[in-house]
Every structure is written in C-alpha cells, then in structure tokens.
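haha ok so turns out i had the wrong file open the whole time. this is the CORRECT one, sorry everyone. sequence first:
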Amino acid sequence: MRKIMSVVAFMVAAAANAQIVDTFDTNDYGWTEISADDGEALIVDGKMHVEGKNSDSRISTHCYAPLDITNDFEMKCDAFVKSVSEKNEFGLIVNYRDDYNFIVFRVTEGAALYERFVDGKLVGRFGNTIKLKSQKKTELKLGLKSTFNKLEFYVNDMKALELRYFPLETTGVGFYVYGKQSIDFDNLEFIQ
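then structure:
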C-alpha cells in the first residue's frame, strides 16, 4: 500500500510541475522564421539562430507557448552569444500579441532592461545594472518567472529585474536581437 501511495504522490507532484523542453530539432511550436537583408531568425542545427546584420537591425521570432498564463510558470533558455556590448542587445519576448504589442526583457553590456510596446509605441521602460563575467563568445542562461502578477527576469540565475502587478494577456513568447548581433538560443524550457 505504501508503494502505491508513493507512486501516486510522485505522479501528482510531476503533474503539478509539468516541463516541456524545445530543443529546436523541429519546429513543433510554430516559430516564425525569417531571412532578409537586415537579418534572420532561423532554426539551424538544433538551435534558434537570430542574427542582426547591421547596426539598426531589429530581428525577432515568436511562438505561442504551451502555458496557462493565469497560473505561475517559468521559462528558461541557453543563449550562445558572440559578443555582449552596449550597441548589440538581445533578450526574451513575452506577452506577444503581434509585432506592435509585446514585452521584451533585454540584455546589453552592464544592464538588463524591460520595455513594453502597445500599438508600436514604447509605453514602459525599466532598467537595472548587471555585471557579466565574459563579454565575448559566452553562454548565458536567461530566465523568466511569472508568479501572481509578478514578473522576474534572470540572467545566469541572478535576478536582474522584477516587475509587480503585471498580468500577462497572451502566451506569445520569443527571442529578440538588436544591432549587429548573432545569438543561438537553445533548450527552451517551459515549467508549470
């Protein structure tokens, strides 16, 4: 009887913390893929490759995550970065509705930033200083936690930003690159 109860308790705990990992070996979640003169967002060799080809490039890709945004969730990924600098930014997109309505959490040299766009206009911005060990050819861990109207953005498992009283409205998530920047994103986890 104890064994049965242990198995049931394990199954309940596993169901309470469902985890889905996108390794980009396929495009099961319907990521947008683009290739243009100013940049590209393509699944290449099991990674989401996002590259801006000039200093004014703004390249992003998105999908609709298998999440219930009314409940707490966590999102994590690996980012393989060529160079972190003041002019070349990258990050995570959440609350993506369309190309004019979304939230982006960005990383740049020495700072983490939050920006919210509504109808194509910047309506909110918040930033915090961060210190990264390496600036060239580095791997970073990016993460986002959503708990009861609170969003926390993590860089290398350290909290970089926290926003309170901010409910999400859509499951749209994605990746963002600004400037002449090349990033490979991999192992995107959705935990709920």
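The two ends are 29 Å apart (CA to CA).
again sry for the mixup
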